[in-house]
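Morning - zinc ion inputs below, output right after.
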Amino acid sequence: VKLILVSQGRGRSHCITLGLWAKALITLCALGLPCSVAALVFLQYSAAGVGFWQGFSQSAWVDAQVERERQARGAHIDAQNKINALAVRVAELQARLVRLDALGERISTNAKLDPEEFDFSQPPALGGPQAEVAGQSYSASELNAMLEQLTAKIDERQHKLESLGDWIADQRITRDAVITGAPVNIGWLSSGFGRRTDPFSGRLEMHEGVDFSGPEGSDVMAVASGLVTYSADKTGYGNLVEINHGNGFKTRYGHCKENLVKVGDVVKKGQVIALLGNTGRSTGPHVHFEVYKNGRVVDPASYIRNTVP
Ligand SMILES: [Zn+2]
């Protein structure tokens, strides 16, 4: 193979004889150019060239991507569930605050307190859980703000109720607030205070009050004036009324057929607060009567004996 080079103008020509290596080089160049162009075109049209490389491990890549998305979705649902649980907690606190307000208002009304000093009638500033129910979820920062507001309000109410308690205790330490007598007119002391064989378990257990048996539906009376602090069903006690008499004294009346007073009521000594019954852990109609002094249960016997003039 010979390559003839002709120079323009002068009409002269050179003759070059190509060796084996030169021929191979030229052939490579001639084939290489179209190959490079084809490769470039391919890369250009296959999703900016990336898809070309992804093609090698297409299925593995898709799996990894799906897994990542699934995890991200899971984490998001987790976070939203936690926020929703917090929102429920906020709603519960709000409900408690409303009840606390109602209690405070009842007490201050019953005790005829200065409404300026004990204003429990302000409506709660926050809405209930309705927004959540309607499908709108709270954000973490909204919840934090709500929790802070609620904490402040509960602190304030607690302070007001404590002041109220002190005030009532001061005002009502009269003869009437001193625990005397039995909580029943008709009836008899059927079980004393202290260790006894439990009628249910058969074991020796502490009986933290005294029992007065009597006709079902007969009167259960407050043994001293005070403030009703509990009036509802309580495990074991059945229908229970609890009265705070101030000065560290508190009495409880259990197993009632029906409670006739509400939390926040101010009751007088001898007032009928419930009907004698057989509710809760009880083997027959009786009232289980407890006396607490500074938070500790005491034997009511000496207080009951005070009756006798
Ligand atoms: Zn009892």
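Note: The two ends are 146 Å apart (CA to CA).

O.
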